[in-house]
Design goal:
The protein is an alpha/beta fold. About 60% of the residues lie in helices and about 5% in strands. Strands 6-5-4-7-8 form a 5-stranded parallel sheet, with helices on both faces. A 3-stranded antiparallel sheet has the order 1-2-3, with no helix packed on it. The longest helix has about 60 residues. It comes from Nocardioides cavernae.
């Protein structure tokens, strides 16, 4: 086993057989943290964005915060109810993409796929960037290095997910449940203190927020509505990740649809409880929170805030106040919040590769995205998602406020098309269904999806109006780019499939085979290639040599005559010392002379055992093959000749395979009599 194989086993674990796929399926207790961590973690930044948007007009507008929270909760409940219908109707894991493709057509499906791909990348970038901000708030020396911290976190998540869905889910389950306990416990204790009348104010309660320019006067009704719409659209970031369960139904244990629907319901109830509790406590503790780039709008009683003032996130301020006499409680909440923001990206790491594999099967993405790795995970999709997320984190310097403006546009595009597709689905089935009980159930499901479409359509319009100039246009461009790329890939695969379709002409034998053996010297590789070419019994067999040096050419001709080889040697003169071009032109001439014939070019190649030896050999052969592969009617045959270094490397590999490893006796690979006698041999 090579050093690379050993390193791979240490990082990823042992390979899994395809028959072990069932062992990677998730029970509900593991599926909840795997697929719900994104939606749950939005509690760490969605309330912050609501207060940032409301702070545009000053702290007086914070009275609307809990009402905006209720509106977001209503949309979330609607979306959860709608997706419960989806997982029952389409349990194959296609989710929104499958619903839109089947019911609305291919273009709608590609639109949904492009929206989801962009949303998954942004999910990782936003979650990791927010976690980096929390880490910098807790560890001062990380300030200014948030992007580096975020990139390292993405690399760690990638390595964990490459180990497989079940392994990563088990690893992430404990932190996710600890986050639920921390936030719900903090909020419950805070609400108890509120009822008891001893809930302290937040650390920022004494600050005054100066409204932005243009918002410092009395708000008109139109201005207030626009402000509330902006806050509502930012709060709807809490809905991202809900769709991941519909894409991940195949990862659940049986009964898959029922388990996925139950997990969806649990997700919705827990996320709503946490978000509303945080918003209510933040309002009651008089938190003052503005855009991190506009800290100059904060004022103390004596003037501007001091230099170096650090604005802690909303949850940090709540925890500091609620646990003012119990510092371990504060550190526990802040720590698990930072951890869950990193792990929230795991939802995308589970949804993106599955969607990519489905797109690959449908010919809309590279086939490599549909291949499972050693641990039965879609490794190529995981690596691609990580690379795109790292690029975004680096470009936006891990600033959540900038990235959040790109967020949720894509997911609400998919929400709308999915709901419309489900309405078409139920309407189509109602035309043929005659059972009254089944019809009532279908009509109820259609009503739920219709209400969901209305809600998500309103949110999409609000998001586009309020966030377009703030950065949503970048998301729309990215979606358009993915749409065009997938359509181009689909056309390419369709064109290739049409070209490769077998017909009667493929049975026609070539009229003649003209075999050419390349001879650079008269040595063992050349003689082996000549022998192999002769064994194939071509119609014409000749060796060719490109002459760039008269003395070397004369010497080769003499050796050829001395050996009395009965195969003619043709010399191609190259006045400009080119080797590849004369051979290519010669094969093209033969092909033109016999259009129905085949030219077989035999190329002797050295097989070496060390990577650096490859740099010293076979370079001309590689260039020649690269040119000849584009020449119609020309077949390129490599004739390998194993040098001693390759044989030594092979022997070392055999010794590694026969060596006794730990656990071999227990697994029955060797007997107690020694490593040379296996169970099969005995």
């Amino acid at each position: 086993m090579s050093v690379g194989d050993v390193s791979k086993r240490i990082l990823l674990g042992r390979k899994l057989r395809s028959s072990q796929l069932g062992e990677t399926l998730l029970p509900k207790r593991i599926a909840l943290p795997v697929f719900a961590s994104d939606a749950l973690s939005s509690v760490a930044y969605a309330p912050d964005e609501v207060f940032i948007m409301l702070a545009v007009a000053g702290a007086s507008t914070y009275v609307w915060s809990w009402k905006i929270g209720l509106a977001v909760a209503l949309v979330m409940l609607t979306v959860v109810a709608s997706y419960r219908q989806t997982v029952h109707a389409y349990p194959s894991g296609g989710g929104d993409y499958e619903v839109a493709t089947v019911n609305l057509g291919r273009n709608a499906g590609v639109t949904v796929a492009s929206a989801l791909l962009v949303d998954y990348v942004l999910t990782v970038a936003v979650s990791i960037s927010s976690a980096a901000q929390y880490a910098a708030g807790a560890i001062p020396f990380l300030i200014g290095h948030e992007a580096t911290v975020g990139i390292l976190a993405v690399v760690l998540l990638t390595a964990m997910n490459l180990r497989g869905v079940r392994e990563s889910g088990s690893f992430f389950a404990v932190p996710t449940y600890l986050f639920m306990v921390a936030i719900l416990g903090m909020c419950a204790y805070g609400l108890l203190r509120l009822l008891a009348g001893d809930l302290p104010d937040a650390e920022s309660a004494d600050l005054v927020i100066r409204p932005q320019e243009g918002w410092d006067g009395p708000l008109t009704q139109v201005g207030l509505m626009f402000l509330l719409a902006r806050a509502f659209s930012s709060g709807c970031a809490a809905l991202t990740g809900v769709e991941a369960i519909s894409n991940g139904v195949p990862a659940f244990r049986k009964p898959k649809s029922r388990n996925a629907a139950t997990t969806l319901l649990l997700l919705g109830m827990i996320a709503i409880s946490m978000m509303m509790s945080v918003i209510v406590l933040a309002k009651q503790m008089a938190i003052r929170y503005v855009d991190p780039h506009e800290l100059d709008r904060l004022r103390t009683a004596s003037g501007a805030v001091p230099d170096g003032y650090v604005q802690h996130p909303v949850i940090s301020q709540i925890a500091a106040g609620v646990f003012d006499h119990f510092s371990p409680g504060f550190y526990f909440v802040v720590t698990v919040t930072g951890v869950i923001l990193v792990l929230a990206a795991n939802t995308a790491f589970n949804g993106f590769p599955v969607l990519g594999s489905i797109l690959a099967q449908d010919g809309l993405a590279p086939r490599s995205l549909g291949s499972r790795g050693d641990r039965l995970a879609y490794s190529n999709g995981i690596v691609f998602l990580a690379a795109m997320s790292i690029l975004l984190i680096w470009i936006f310097d891990a600033e959540t406020t900038k990235l959040i403006q790109l967020y949720i546009v894509g997911v609400f595009v998919s929400f709308n098309l999915s709901q419309l597709g489900m309405i078409r689905h139920w309407s189509r089935h109602l035309r043929t269904e005659r059972d009254p009980a089944v019809r009532r159930r279908m009509m109820r499901s259609r009503a739920i999806n219709a209400f969901g479409l209305g809600m998500t359509a309103v949110v999409l319009v609000i998001v586009l109006i309020t966030k377009f100039l703030a950065g949503a246009w970048i998301t729309i461009l990215a979606m358009g780019f993915f749409f065009l790329v997938m359509q181009a890939i689909g056309r390419h695969y369709a064109r290739v499939e049409l070209e490769l379709a077998a017909d009667e002409q493929d049975k026609v034998m070539p009229t003649r085979v003209h075999a050419i053996v390349l001879a650079s010297k008269l040595h063992k590789p050349t003689l082996r290639a000549l022998a192999f070419a002769r064994a194939t019994r071509p119609n014409v067999l000749e060796a060719i040599y490109v002459s760039v040096d008269a003395k070397a050419t004369s010497r080769l001709l003499e050796e050829w005559d001395d050996r009395h080889l009965d195969i003619p040697l043709k010399v191609l003169h190259s006045p400009y010392r080119e080797v590849v071009r004369p051979i290519v032109e010669y094969t093209q001439e033969i092909r033109r002379a016999s259009p129905r014939g085949v030219v077989a070019v035999y190329i002797p190649e050295y097989v070496v055992g060390r990577w650096w030896e490859q740099l010293l050999h076979n370079q001309t052969a590689l260039r020649l093959k690269g040119r000849l592969l584009f020449t119609p009617g020309v077949m390129v045959i490599s004739v390998p000749y194993q040098l001693r270094s390759s044989q030594l490397a092979q022997e070392r590999g055999r010794r590694d395979e026969t060596r006794v490893h730990a656990g071999d006796l227990r697994r029955g690979r060797v007997t107690s009599r020694g490593p040379s006698r296996t169970v099969d041999d005995a």
